[in-house]
Write a structure and sequence with these properties.
With 390 residues, this protein is mainly alpha-helical. The protein is 69% helix and 2% strand. Strands 1-2 form a two-stranded antiparallel ribbon.
Length: 390
């Protein structure tokens, strides 16, 4: 037992939640991977499932390794990660013309997933290092530009991820102590401009001369959500039917019907299939697990002795929880289709692995918090230590 404790360092509650989510992931992916396997050349359900298992195991290794590092070292690493993210995002837009980048022998990955994790750590660093200038307009604008650069580069091919990144980092700015007056005014301005631009795009519809190629896709998704066609055999409608079929207790694991007809049953709509197989009870359990994870992150953030660690945990906790909420809301019809996966449950890939890296950073902070709390208890220190050099 002691050897396991030495390997799985950090917050035990977060480890247990991740373990349960990964087990649910293996079961759900095994149950839903069939149609995707037959739609790919030379692919089999067993082969894709083994690939997913490998990603899950690699994520465990990544979390364990990262949790053993001093989280303060991520301050310098985040500078390199921020620049690397920008370079990769430019390359994927200019050369690959999409959100996926092809690497020989390694396959595809999404630079936006790397940017998501790196930017959160980088913003936490910038907020911490601002010191007494945190309330100044210059600091606010600098942070806004740094966040905006990444957001704008992600936006053309992945609107939902761009919004998720911006909202998470923008809330981090408020938590970090920026001037609330600037924060509120800018938020209202961004919401107003964004609303006007979307209204114009929606009115124009799927125009061929649109500035952003995927704007027609966004408009179609919102239009399908606002004006659903019940006779269309779409992913959204099949997800609703799967949820309706599940009722309270579900039809049993492996007894899904709709996963055999959906190309994204293992990915974007896996939550709907979980409800079909395990019912409303299973759906509530999954929601509760993510809510418990967020609560653990909030509690850990409040226990941190320094601003940098506190902001990292808050940011990573928010981005994982918000992404989970978006995916679940899409599955039950509360939001239009976004393409966001269900963290640590959907079929593994870049998103699974790099969110796992983010979880490793959280556990690294947790290790430091636990170490300091033990030292304070042993030395009978009443006032918490607040020294944090990054």
């Amino acid at each position: 037992m002691r050897k396991l404790t030495n390997i799985f360092k950090g917050d035990l509650g977060i480890w247990m939640i991740f373990f349960v989510l990964s087990v649910i992931s293996l079961i759900a992916v095994y149950s839903t991977i069939g149609l995707q396997a037959y739609s790919l050349p030379a692919a089999t359900p067993t082969g894709l499932f083994i690939k997913h298992v490998a990603i899950v195991l690699a994520t465990y290794v990544a979390i364990i390794v990262i949790s053993m590092l001093n989280y303060r070292s991520f301050s310098r690493i985040s500078q390199f990660g921020y620049v690397l993210s920008i370079v990769l995002l430019i390359v994927v837009l200019a050369i690959f013309k999409g959100r996926w980048m092809e690497i020989p022998y390694l396959g595809q990955f999404q630079p936006s997933e790397i940017a998501k994790v790196c930017l959160i750590v980088f913003v936490a660093r910038q907020l911490t290092r601002s010191g007494d200038d945190i309330k100044s307009l210059g600091t606010f604008l600098t942070l806004l530009i740094e966040i905006g650069v990444v957001t704008i580069l992600v936006l053309p091919e992945n609107l939902s991820t761009a919004i998720l990144i911006f909202i998470t980092c923008y809330i981090m700015m408020l938590i970090g102590g920026v001037n609330k007056k600037y924060w509120i005014r800018t938020l209202l301005a961004v919401a107003l401009v964004g609303g006007i631009l979307f209204f114009i795009a929606y009115e124009r519809g799927a125009s061929k001369d649109a500035v952003l190629e995927r704007s027609s896709t966004w408009v179609h998704r919102v239009d399908s959500w606002l004006n659903p066609n019940p006779n269309e055999l779409s992913q959204e409608n099949m997800a609703r039917m799967a949820i309706a079929r599940g009722e309270v207790f579900g039809v049993g694991v492996g007894n899904t019907v709709h996963a055999r007809l959906m190309t994204q049953a293992h990915n974007d709509f896996i939550y709907a299939i979980i409800i079909e197989e395990t019912g409303m009870i299973g759906g509530l359990v999954v929601f509760a697990l993510y809510s418990m994870f967020f609560f653990c992150c909030v509690r850990l953030s409040r226990r941190c002795r320094g601003t940098f660690g506190s902001l990292i945990v808050a940011g990573m906790g928010m981005v994982i929880y918000f992404q989970a909420l978006i995916n679940m809301c899409v599955a039950v019809g509360l939001l239009p289709v976004t393409g966001q996966t269900l963290p640590f449950i959907s079929y593994g890939g870049t998103a699974y692995l790099f969110l796992g890296c983010g979880l490793g950073v959280i556990q690294s902070v947790a290790c430091d918090v636990i170490k300091q709390e033990r030292a304070e208890k042993e030395n009978n220190i009443v006032q918490p230590q607040t020294t944090e050099t990054i």
